[in-house]
Amino acid sequence: MNFTSYLDTPQFQALALHLMIGLEIPIHMFGVFCILFRTPGSMRSVKWGMLNLHVWSMGLDLGVSLLTIPYILYPALAGFTLGVLTDFDVPMAYQAYLLAVLIGREFEKRVSQEIELVNTSLKVPRRYRLSYGSCAADQGKRYTVTSKCGQLWHGLPNFL
Prior knowledge:
Blueprint: H1 10-37, H2 47-68, E1 70-73, E2 78-81, H3 84-87, H4 92-121, E3 130-135, E4 140-146, E5 152-154
Antiparallel strand pairs: 1-2, 3-4, 4-5
Helix pairs in contact: 1-2, 2-4
Transmembrane segments: 12-37, 49-74
Keywords: Membrane, Transmembrane, Transmembrane helix
InterPro entries: 7TM_GPCR_serpentine_rcpt_Srh, Nematode_rcpt-like_serp_H
């Protein structure tokens, strides 16, 4: 490959992300400490949800900054990985699967928390609340609305 400067090289991206991980880990650990030991009593009901989201966010950060370090080549949307998993000869398909799971889980947690925030801030009665659920039996995720009769309406079809 013909690079014009060191800033364009994969080695620089790996070095930059490894330096960032040195800052990320202490900040993430401080976040875990604050969630576990400094959460006010009024937030006790959301404490474990916050910790769950924070742990998955930590996993995504570690996955991108340490484990895989994807190096994407535009405009072809091609690329390769530079991370620790590459050093241990883990196939790229497994690395891509790991990132897809971490990104998907992060998205699911954030969407479900935003929907819960909308439900509580608008004071929607519990029987009409939106929820973001995932069910292994349905093999997919869908928005659902529960009617006052207890029936379950599926807003999005299952494409999987």
